[in-house]
């Protein structure tokens, strides 16, 4: 049971600090989503289909590790004055920064040796990411229980995420090209640049740690003994969580395929990989419009309808873009609209999962922030594995060959992966949230009042 209501308004500094957590997260996570597939195929010399297998297996492995990591955090005893989740931000970010660099190293081994190293480094990276991201995501549920404040926190978190994506999208490839132009081999330039990015990420998490506060505190650890049965029970007994997980599989896979395919589209469909930095400057920069209006949209329409509005905008823009010719100006304009749309539901999910944590406590009598968030994160990892797998397999199926002029079939396939798949996936997500999600903002407010009344009995 919470020992504090957590309803007081949050200061701007704390909201910014919370957003800086996902900013730091992006400086390590986004590197894998944006550049690791290209590193595998073009630098390490791993074929697209084998690279697809690395993403699929590693992400699935990490997905199944998430509930174990989350439960271990919830069942931890002797929690100190720094809180239940905040200490992980320091130690977890340091570990993840080091592991990020190792994923972008291609040792001088045989083809089989390179595959083994790629699998091992990315799977270990996934475990490190879980021990950082799950506590950070759970932190949002204990900073406040106020619905409007959570929407604002979600907005700042999404702004931090987009800020990291924005910067890593426009500076990483130019930095790599800069180092290679001045004598560094690709095999050295990639880990060097990823190390610089990771240092930024670590500093951002330190700022988040120092300027956030845990207000909603569970008075005791869960009573049931930790087991696989308890984890499954937590999952299947929380219907809003099940719906959010299902929706997230489609929204995140769409988002990640967009991110992974853009570098290929810039290099081969538009004929200049350097265009990626300029396009991302506009596309991702435009996404801040959606983040800026997110709290106002939630206040006006509620979380559920706002999610559907954002999905609808992205679906329409991507569909039109797929049918247009490969023109950098037309593509950038429509892609910007699509990113504005998808940034809205991606931001609101952070507020939804905090509401769902409250729902889980209300329905079960036990507060399991990290377990619940890890189960939500499980769906994100499934989506990430799906997107990485589909990207690699898709490239192989359409006949993509690295570093040569692509066939018309390959060029069309890259367009489809970048625009058509996201439009279809988001349409499915829109149906799921529209018909299956029943935890309204009004219902959540009633739940919070009941929880607070019980806490003060």
Explain what the structure shows.
The chain has 457 residues and is an all-alpha fold. Helix content is 81%, strand content 0%. The protein has 14 helices and no strands. Helix 1 packs antiparallel against helix 4 and helix 8 runs antiparallel to helix 11. The chain is globular and about 70 Å long.
- Number of contiguous helices: 14
Helix content: over 70%
Biggest sheet features? none
Q: Overall 3D geometry?
A: globular
Features:
457 residues; 14 helices; mainly alpha
Q: Quick gist of this model?
A:
With 457 residues, the chain is an all-alpha fold.
Ordered list of secondary-structure elements with their pairings:
Layout: H1 12-43, H2 48-74, H3 86-103, H4 111-143, H5 147-181, H6 186-210, H7 228-236, H8 239-269, H9 275-301, H10 303-323, H11 328-364, H12 369-397, H13 408-436, H14 441-455
Helix pairs in contact: 1-3, 1-4, 1-5, 1-6, 1-8, 2-4, 2-12, 3-4, 3-6, 4-11, 4-12, 5-6, 5-9, 5-11, 8-11, 8-12, 8-13, 9-10, 9-11, 10-11, 10-13, 11-12, 11-14, 12-13
């Amino acid at each position: 049971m919470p020992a504090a209501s957590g309803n007081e308004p949050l200061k701007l500094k704390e909201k910014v600090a919370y957003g800086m957590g996902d900013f730091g997260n992006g400086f390590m996570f986004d590197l894998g989503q944006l550049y690791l597939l290209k590193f595998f195929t073009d630098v390490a010399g791993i074929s697209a289909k084998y690279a697809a297998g690395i993403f699929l297996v590693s992400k699935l492995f990490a997905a199944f590790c998430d509930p174990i990591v989350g439960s271990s955090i919830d069942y931890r005893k002797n929690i100190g004055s720094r809180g239940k989740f905040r200490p992980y931000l320091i130690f977890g970010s340091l570990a993840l920064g080091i592991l990020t660099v190792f994923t972008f190293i291609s040792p001088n081994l045989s083809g089989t040796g390179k595959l083994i190293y790629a699998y091992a480094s990315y799977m270990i990276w996934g475990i490190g990411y879980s021990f950082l991201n799950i506590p950070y995501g759970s932190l949002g549920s204990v900073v406040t229980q106020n619905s409007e404040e959570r929407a604002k926190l979600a907005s700042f978190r999404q702004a931090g995420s987009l800020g990291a994506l924005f910067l890593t999208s426009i500076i990483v490839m130019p930095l790599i090209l800069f180092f290679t132009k001045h004598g560094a081999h690709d095999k050295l330039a990639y880990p060097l640049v990823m190390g610089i990015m990771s240092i930024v990420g670590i500093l951002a998490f330190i700022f988040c740690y120092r300027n956030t506060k845990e207000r909603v505190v569970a008075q005791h650890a869960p009573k049931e003994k930790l087991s696989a049965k308890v984890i499954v029970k937590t999952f299947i007994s929380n219907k809003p969580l099940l719906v959010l997980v299902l929706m997230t599989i489609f929204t995140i896979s769409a988002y990640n395929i967009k991110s992974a395919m853009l570098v290929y589209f810039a290099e081969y469909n538009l004929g200049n990989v350097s265009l990626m930095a300029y396009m991302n400057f506009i596309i991702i920069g435009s996404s801040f419009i959606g983040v800026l209006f997110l709290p106002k949209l939630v206040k006006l329409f509620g979380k559920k309808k706002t999610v559907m509005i954002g999905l609808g905008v992205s679906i329409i823009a991507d569909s039109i873009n797929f049918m247009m010719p490969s023109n950098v100006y037309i593509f950038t304009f429509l892609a910007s609209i699509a990113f504005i749309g998808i940034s809205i539901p991606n931001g609101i999910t952070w507020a939804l999962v905090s509401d769902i944590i409250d729902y889980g406590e209300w329905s079960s009598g036990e507060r399991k922030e990290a377990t619940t968030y890890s189960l939500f994160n499980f769906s994100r990892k499934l989506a990430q594995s799906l997107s990485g797998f589909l990207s690699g397999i898709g490239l192989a199926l359409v006949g993509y060959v690295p570093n040569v002029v692509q066939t018309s079939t390959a060029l069309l396939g890259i367009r489809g992966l970048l625009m058509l798949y996201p439009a279809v996936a988001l349409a499915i997500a829109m149906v799921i949230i529209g018909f299956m999600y029943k935890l309204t903002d009004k219902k959540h407010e009633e739940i919070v009042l009941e929880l607070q009344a019980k806490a003060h009995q």
